[in-house]
Design a protein that fits this description.
Elements lengths: L6 H15 L4 E2 H8 L3 H15 L4 E6 L2 E6 L4 H7 L10 H13 L2 E2 H8 L4 H9 L3 E6 L7 E5 L1 H6 L36
Helix pairs in contact: 1-3, 2-3, 5-7
Length: 194
Amino acid sequence: MPASAPAADGLTQRLEALLFVAGGPATAAQLAAALGVSPREVEHGLQTLDQASAGRGIRLQWHHGAVQLTTASELAQDVEHFLNLEGTTRLTRAALEVLAIVAYEQPVTRPKIDSVRGVNSETALQTLLRHGLVEEVGRAEGAGRPILYATTPEFLQHFGLTRLSELPPLQVEARAESAPAEDPPSAPAGDEGG
Protein backbone atom coordinates (compact mmCIF):
# COMPACT_ATOMS: atom_id res chain seq x y z
CA MET A 1 0.00 0.00 0.00
CA PRO A 2 1.53 3.38 -1.01
CA ALA A 3 2.35 5.92 1.67
CA SER A 4 -0.37 8.51 2.14
CA ALA A 5 0.22 12.05 0.89
CA PRO A 6 1.15 14.70 3.44
CA ALA A 7 -1.84 16.40 5.04
CA ALA A 8 -1.01 19.71 3.33
CA ASP A 9 -1.22 18.09 -0.13
CA GLY A 10 -4.58 16.56 0.77
CA LEU A 11 -5.88 19.95 1.85
CA THR A 12 -4.59 21.52 -1.36
CA GLN A 13 -6.44 18.93 -3.42
CA ARG A 14 -9.61 19.43 -1.40
CA LEU A 15 -9.37 23.22 -1.84
CA GLU A 16 -8.83 22.84 -5.59
CA ALA A 17 -11.91 20.60 -5.83
CA LEU A 18 -14.10 23.08 -3.94
CA LEU A 19 -12.88 26.05 -5.98
CA PHE A 20 -13.43 24.08 -9.19
CA VAL A 21 -17.13 23.57 -8.45
CA ALA A 22 -17.77 26.90 -6.74
CA GLY A 23 -20.12 29.21 -8.59
CA GLY A 24 -17.98 32.23 -7.75
CA PRO A 25 -15.38 33.54 -5.33
CA ALA A 26 -15.22 31.95 -1.86
CA THR A 27 -13.69 33.28 1.35
CA ALA A 28 -11.16 31.40 3.46
CA ALA A 29 -13.81 31.19 6.19
CA GLN A 30 -16.31 29.55 3.81
CA LEU A 31 -13.72 27.05 2.62
CA ALA A 32 -12.58 26.34 6.18
CA ALA A 33 -16.16 25.68 7.33
CA ALA A 34 -16.78 23.32 4.39
CA LEU A 35 -13.58 21.37 5.05
CA GLY A 36 -13.62 21.43 8.85
CA VAL A 37 -10.23 23.13 9.15
CA SER A 38 -9.05 26.53 10.34
CA PRO A 39 -8.98 29.60 8.05
CA ARG A 40 -5.21 29.76 8.65
CA GLU A 41 -4.82 26.22 7.27
CA VAL A 42 -6.95 27.21 4.27
CA GLU A 43 -4.79 30.29 3.63
CA HIS A 44 -1.65 28.14 3.74
CA GLY A 45 -3.27 25.59 1.42
CA LEU A 46 -4.29 28.35 -1.00
CA GLN A 47 -0.71 29.64 -1.11
CA THR A 48 0.48 26.11 -1.91
CA LEU A 49 -2.19 25.75 -4.60
CA ASP A 50 -1.27 29.15 -6.06
CA GLN A 51 2.39 28.13 -6.35
CA ALA A 52 1.44 24.78 -7.85
CA SER A 53 -0.74 26.41 -10.53
CA ALA A 54 2.05 28.68 -11.81
CA GLY A 55 2.70 27.77 -15.43
CA ARG A 56 -0.55 25.80 -15.74
CA GLY A 57 -3.81 26.64 -17.47
CA ILE A 58 -5.58 27.75 -14.30
CA ARG A 59 -4.80 30.41 -11.72
CA LEU A 60 -6.11 31.50 -8.36
CA GLN A 61 -7.66 34.95 -8.42
CA TRP A 62 -8.14 36.99 -5.24
CA HIS A 63 -10.65 39.81 -4.97
CA HIS A 64 -11.85 41.58 -1.83
CA GLY A 65 -10.92 38.72 0.50
CA ALA A 66 -12.30 35.94 -1.69
CA VAL A 67 -10.61 33.52 -4.10
CA GLN A 68 -11.65 31.59 -7.19
CA LEU A 69 -10.14 29.45 -9.93
CA THR A 70 -9.84 31.16 -13.30
CA THR A 71 -8.31 30.42 -16.67
CA ALA A 72 -4.79 31.75 -17.14
CA SER A 73 -5.10 35.10 -18.92
CA GLU A 74 -2.60 34.15 -21.60
CA LEU A 75 -4.97 31.36 -22.67
CA ALA A 76 -8.07 33.54 -23.02
CA GLN A 77 -7.92 33.52 -26.82
CA ASP A 78 -7.91 29.71 -26.92
CA VAL A 79 -10.88 29.54 -24.56
CA GLU A 80 -12.83 32.16 -26.54
CA HIS A 81 -12.19 30.22 -29.76
CA PHE A 82 -13.16 26.88 -28.20
CA LEU A 83 -16.39 28.30 -26.77
CA ASN A 84 -17.17 30.30 -29.94
CA LEU A 85 -17.25 33.53 -27.99
CA GLU A 86 -16.97 36.93 -29.58
CA GLY A 87 -13.87 38.98 -28.94
CA THR A 88 -13.55 41.03 -25.82
CA THR A 89 -15.96 43.93 -25.58
CA ARG A 90 -14.30 47.19 -26.47
CA LEU A 91 -14.66 49.95 -23.93
CA THR A 92 -14.85 53.64 -24.79
CA ARG A 93 -12.21 56.03 -23.54
CA ALA A 94 -14.74 57.42 -21.04
CA ALA A 95 -15.51 53.92 -19.72
CA LEU A 96 -11.78 53.17 -19.38
CA GLU A 97 -11.25 56.45 -17.48
CA VAL A 98 -14.07 55.62 -15.08
CA LEU A 99 -12.80 52.06 -14.68
CA ALA A 100 -9.31 53.32 -13.83
CA ILE A 101 -10.71 55.70 -11.21
CA VAL A 102 -12.79 52.93 -9.65
CA ALA A 103 -9.86 50.49 -9.69
CA TYR A 104 -7.48 52.86 -7.91
CA GLU A 105 -9.92 54.67 -5.61
CA GLN A 106 -12.35 51.91 -4.65
CA PRO A 107 -14.73 52.04 -3.05
CA VAL A 108 -15.65 55.32 -4.73
CA THR A 109 -18.82 57.32 -5.36
CA ARG A 110 -20.02 58.68 -8.68
CA PRO A 111 -19.69 62.29 -7.47
CA LYS A 112 -15.99 61.57 -6.73
CA ILE A 113 -15.57 59.99 -10.18
CA ASP A 114 -17.27 63.02 -11.77
CA SER A 115 -15.01 65.42 -9.86
CA VAL A 116 -11.86 63.59 -10.98
CA ARG A 117 -12.98 63.51 -14.62
CA GLY A 118 -14.64 66.92 -14.64
CA VAL A 119 -17.69 65.57 -16.48
CA ASN A 120 -20.77 63.46 -15.78
CA SER A 121 -19.80 59.78 -15.72
CA GLU A 122 -23.23 58.18 -15.44
CA THR A 123 -23.31 56.63 -18.93
CA ALA A 124 -19.79 55.20 -18.68
CA LEU A 125 -20.52 53.85 -15.20
CA GLN A 126 -23.73 52.19 -16.42
CA THR A 127 -21.74 50.54 -19.25
CA LEU A 128 -19.24 49.15 -16.74
CA LEU A 129 -22.05 47.89 -14.50
CA ARG A 130 -23.75 46.22 -17.48
CA HIS A 131 -20.51 44.46 -18.46
CA GLY A 132 -19.93 43.33 -14.86
CA LEU A 133 -16.61 45.15 -14.48
CA VAL A 134 -17.81 47.25 -11.52
CA GLU A 135 -20.48 46.71 -8.91
CA GLU A 136 -22.33 48.55 -6.18
CA VAL A 137 -20.77 47.71 -2.81
CA GLY A 138 -22.66 49.93 -0.39
CA ARG A 139 -23.43 53.52 0.43
CA ALA A 140 -21.16 56.31 1.62
CA GLU A 141 -21.89 58.21 4.79
CA GLY A 142 -22.94 61.82 4.37
CA ALA A 143 -25.42 63.86 2.37
CA GLY A 144 -27.53 61.75 0.05
CA ARG A 145 -25.61 58.56 0.94
CA PRO A 146 -24.24 58.06 -2.59
CA ILE A 147 -23.60 54.56 -3.91
CA LEU A 148 -20.08 53.17 -3.57
CA TYR A 149 -18.58 51.33 -6.54
CA ALA A 150 -15.74 48.80 -6.71
CA THR A 151 -14.29 46.45 -9.30
CA THR A 152 -15.44 42.85 -9.69
CA PRO A 153 -13.64 39.54 -10.24
CA GLU A 154 -14.61 39.95 -13.92
CA PHE A 155 -12.50 43.13 -13.96
CA LEU A 156 -9.49 41.08 -12.87
CA GLN A 157 -10.19 38.44 -15.51
CA HIS A 158 -10.71 41.05 -18.24
CA PHE A 159 -7.29 42.54 -17.56
CA GLY A 160 -5.47 39.28 -16.76
CA LEU A 161 -4.84 40.06 -13.09
CA THR A 162 -4.98 37.63 -10.18
CA ARG A 163 -5.32 40.33 -7.51
CA LEU A 164 -5.73 44.10 -7.27
CA SER A 165 -2.19 44.51 -5.96
CA GLU A 166 -0.97 43.64 -9.48
CA LEU A 167 -2.30 46.94 -10.83
CA PRO A 168 0.60 49.09 -11.99
CA PRO A 169 1.55 51.90 -9.61
CA LEU A 170 -0.50 55.03 -10.11
CA GLN A 171 1.58 57.86 -11.56
CA VAL A 172 -0.26 61.16 -11.37
CA GLU A 173 0.88 63.94 -13.66
CA ALA A 174 1.49 67.39 -12.22
CA ARG A 175 -1.86 69.14 -11.85
CA ALA A 176 -2.93 72.70 -12.56
CA GLU A 177 -2.72 73.48 -8.82
CA SER A 178 1.07 73.63 -9.19
CA ALA A 179 0.82 76.44 -11.78
CA PRO A 180 1.09 80.05 -10.54
CA ALA A 181 -2.27 81.60 -9.68
CA GLU A 182 -1.86 84.47 -12.18
CA ASP A 183 -1.70 82.14 -15.21
CA PRO A 184 -5.13 82.30 -16.88
CA PRO A 185 -6.64 79.10 -18.27
CA SER A 186 -6.56 78.72 -22.04
CA ALA A 187 -10.37 78.75 -22.24
CA PRO A 188 -13.07 79.92 -19.84
CA ALA A 189 -14.38 77.20 -17.51
CA GLY A 190 -17.32 75.38 -19.02
CA ASP A 191 -16.49 76.59 -22.56
CA GLU A 192 -16.51 73.60 -24.86
CA GLY A 193 -15.58 75.50 -27.98
CA GLY A 194 -19.11 76.05 -29.19
